[in-house]
């Protein structure tokens, strides 16, 4: 018996390792590097001074003067992720600059070529995504200290003071708080295969507990992120060039493609955590053209390939929902519903956050200093290209419908 327990534990650990899921930080990149080799100092110099360069009107000139650097010297996953993050910041700043109507439709080849080369190596799109600005954009101030907001910082910044630090780090800490839920997934699948009701019940309870902790961390967004600054400044730099009124044809990556390409900006839909739990619990979102299911499927292309593959593997795992229904067991049904309710609770709070940070600021009369789009454009699209309230309401409602009745 002891040997089989060890075997299952090792099997679960191997599943997580194979899909680049860390024991401590889940889908986040563990121990991100903070320095690129000296040869890439021109990129770092621009990426670390974006707010000042934008304020002084020097950003685009400095980007256009950058040498075209080979990516051959960037060996290893962490080094490539850091370079991808830096080029992502530079790209967003170059395209949007001061956040007004002066938008660039062409990314110069000295940035476009290495950025697209790195993107291909990593299996990520050439735009700043959630995998970049949240999962790989952090460090500890004291390396021996705790993983807390107070002991952490981001690697690069946009204009807007500490707004992006608050937004990215709270999002990261939500990921970390929810990581025990992801670690429990192999245990859930194993318990279903073995028809071990007690092990399944405990694993589902662990997932629900993790989601409750993640929601508590999520609430701290309001402590660190000012709604007006997010809406009028940071949101602009996170916007992509798909469904964009200012880049209706997309962005041309000079020296890489002959026609413009469309990519969505960073979105919580690119987080692997909640998509993983949807698949695990058998929650199926509304399908069809331009539906939540289609959008979430598209967002998988913005995830690191190993995380994308984890989702694919879950889809062929034993169906948890059907197993719970077939057992007619009150405690097991309650444990399953506890997980679903945990997801519903997080999604309800996400709706409240979108209302605070997008909908309410969009309805305020712009002042001369605002750099936002017209309210009608802003209300209909989030940084990922969707109508955020419509999308999140649909996702929340579908999750609620997954609750099982008892008896």
Structure in words:
Belongs to the indoleamine 2,3-dioxygenase family. It catalyses: L-tryptophan + O2 = N-formyl-L-kynurenine; D-tryptophan + O2 = N-formyl-D-kynurenine. Residues 362-407 are annotated as: Disordered. By secondary structure, the chain is mostly helical. Helices cover 58% and strands 2% of the residues. It has 18 helices and four strands. It has helices spanning 2-18, 41-47, 50-55, 59-65, 77-96, 109-122, 130-133, 163-194, 197-218, 221-224, 227-238, 272-281, 292-299, 305-315, 320-327, 330-362, 375-380, 388-401; strands at residues 106-107, 139-140, 152-153, 252-253. Strands 1-4 form a two-stranded parallel ribbon. A two-stranded antiparallel ribbon has the order 2-3. The longest helix is centred in the last third of the chain and has 33 residues, at 330-362. The protein is globular and about 65 Å long. Mean pLDDT is 91; it is low at 1-7 and 368-380.
The class by helix and strand makeup works out as mainly alpha
Shape type: globular
Rg for CA atoms:
22 Å
What's the oligomerization state? single chain
Biased composition (Basic and acidic residues): 365-374
Function: Catalyzes the first and rate limiting step of the catabolism of tryptophan along the kynurenine pathway. Involved in immune regulation.
Subunit structure: Monomer.
Enzyme class: oxidoreductase
């Amino acid at each position: 018996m002891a040997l089989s327990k060890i075997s299952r534990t090792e099997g679960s650990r191997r599943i997580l390792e194979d899909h680049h899921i860390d024991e401590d930080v889940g889908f986040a990149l563990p121990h991100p590097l903070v320095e690129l080799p000296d040869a890439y100092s021109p990129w770092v110099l621009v990426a670390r001074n974006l707010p000042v360069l934008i304020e002084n009107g020097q950003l685009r000139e400095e980007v256009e003067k950058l040498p075209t650097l080979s990516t051959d010297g960037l060996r290893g996953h962490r080094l490539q992720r850091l370079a991808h993050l830096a080029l992502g910041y530079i790209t967003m700043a170059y395209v949007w600059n001061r956040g007004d109507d002066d938008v660039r439709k062409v990314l110069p080849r000295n940035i476009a070529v290495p950025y697209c080369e790195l993107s291909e190596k990593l299996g990520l799109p050439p735009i700043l995504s959630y995998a970049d600005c949240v999962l790989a954009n952090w460090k500890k101030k004291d390396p021996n200290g705790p993983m807390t907001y107070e002991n952490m910082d981001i690697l690069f910044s946009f204009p807007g003071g500490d707004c992006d630090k608050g937004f990215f780090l709270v999002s990261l800490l939500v990921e970390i708080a929810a990581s025990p839920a992801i670690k429990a997934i192999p245990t859930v699948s194993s318990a279903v295969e073995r028809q071990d009701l007690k092990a399944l019940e405990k694993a589902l309870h662990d997932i629900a507990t993790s989601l409750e902790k993640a929601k508590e961390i999520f609430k701290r967004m309001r402590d660190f992120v000012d709604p007006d600054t997010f809406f009028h400044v940071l949101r602009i730099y996170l916007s992509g060039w798909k469904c964009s009124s200012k880049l209706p044809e997309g962005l041309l990556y000079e020296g890489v493609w002959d026609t413009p390409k469309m990519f969505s900006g960073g979105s919580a839909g690119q987080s692997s955590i909640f998509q993983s739990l949807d698949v695990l619990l058998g929650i199926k979102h509304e399908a069809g053209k331009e539906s939540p299911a289609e959008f979430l499927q598209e967002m998988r292309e913005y995830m690191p390939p190993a995380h994308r593959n984890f989702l694919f593997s879950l889809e062929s795992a034993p169906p948890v929902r059907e197993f719970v229904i077939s057992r007619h067991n009150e405690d097991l049904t309650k444990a399953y519903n506890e997980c679903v309710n945990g997801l519903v609770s997080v999604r309800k709070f996400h709706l409240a956050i979108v209302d605070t940070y997008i909908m309410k600021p969009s309805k305020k009369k712009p002042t001369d200093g605002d750099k936002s789009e017209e309210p009608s454009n802003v209300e209909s699209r989030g940084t990922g290209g969707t109508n955020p309230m419509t999308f999140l309401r649909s996702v929340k409602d579908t999750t609620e419908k997954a609750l099982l009745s008892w008896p």
